[in-house]
Amino acid sequence: MNLHGLRLFHAIVRYGGVTRAAEELNISQPAVSSQVKKFERELGIQLFVSEGRRLVLTDAGIQLTGYAERLFMLEQDVENFVQDFREGKKGLIRLTATYLPSNFLLPGWIARFKQMHEDVEIVVSTTNTRMAFDQLLRYEAEIAVYGGSGITHAGVQWDELFDDEMWFVVHPDHPYAGKEIELHEMMAEPFIMREEGSATRERLVSLCTTNNLAAPRIALQFNGLNETISAVKAGYGANFISSLVVNEDVQQGRLARVFVRGVQLRNTVAVCTRAGEVLSPAAQHLVKLIRQEAALMK
Predict the structure, then answer these.
(1) What tens digit of pLDDT does each residue of 133-162 get?
(2) What is the pTM of this model?
(3) Is the pLDDT of residue 36 over 80?
């Protein structure tokens, strides 16, 4: 199919004649006439008949007009999509996040982004640190939003947003609630933690190793962050967690801090992308908004 010939045919129909079509397309009138005749010969179909100085569509021409209109409308849709994609107005963002940002930061950030970019689709996967970086490097996600120890990872571009304190928390009725104790005393408590692969759990184990203590006893394990907090609120065990997650519960008396001498660890929240790659325009807009929102939290 000669699409140039089809386009000239469609222009003649659309503008009501060869002269107007030639003017709109900035092509000479003889060139339009000769190209359309050549198009008819290639198809083996007569598309126009002459009535005096006027061209009239044949039945075949009428039917082909319908196909041509749908084709060029689709072409316009494609051009509009490409333009919107370039400007970040449309697109698909696959985002993976660890539990801290996914539960406590991203809902608000994404809601504000969608208010400005309604036609951008966002798919969020919530997982642990190990799986988040795996998904990013396997091209299953374009962006990873991470909350943890600030570890580096080969092939990952690291953009730190802010950090906060790591707290030990217990039920308000616990004997250690609000008190300052030694690390070995804290480590004698049963802990409620996330699954292996969680950056927070790995930090707690590393803290024990650094201080020549036995690994913490994980008495309960959950795959979700909220579940670990709820169990401590119910009155069992201790948790080691970002202050961002439990600050409100501590302020309102649903949980209590335990102050451990010599332990002052911080938690890093960062946006991670594949090193050396340029994000899609929509993803660039999202990362810009995340940076702006995070800056307000410092």
Answers:
(1) 999 999 999 999 988 776 667 899 989 999
(2) 0.74
(3) yes
DSSP annotation string for the chain? --HHHHHHHHHHHHHTSHHHHHHHHT--HHHHHHHHHHHHHHHT---EEEETTEEEE-HHHHHHHHHHHHHHHHHHHHHHHHHHHHTTSSEEEEEEE-HHHHHHTHHHHHHHHHHH-TTEEEEEEE--HHHHHHHHHTTS-SEEEEEES----TTEEEEEEEEEEEEEEE-TTSTTTT-EE-HHHHHTSEEEEE-TT-HHHHHHHHHHHHTT-PPPEEEEEESSHHHHHHHHHTT--BEEEEHHHHHHHHHTTSSEEEEETT---EEEEEEEEETT-PPPHHHHHHHHHHHHHHHTT-
| Predicted confidence band of residue 53 (pLDDT cuts 50, 70, 90) | confident
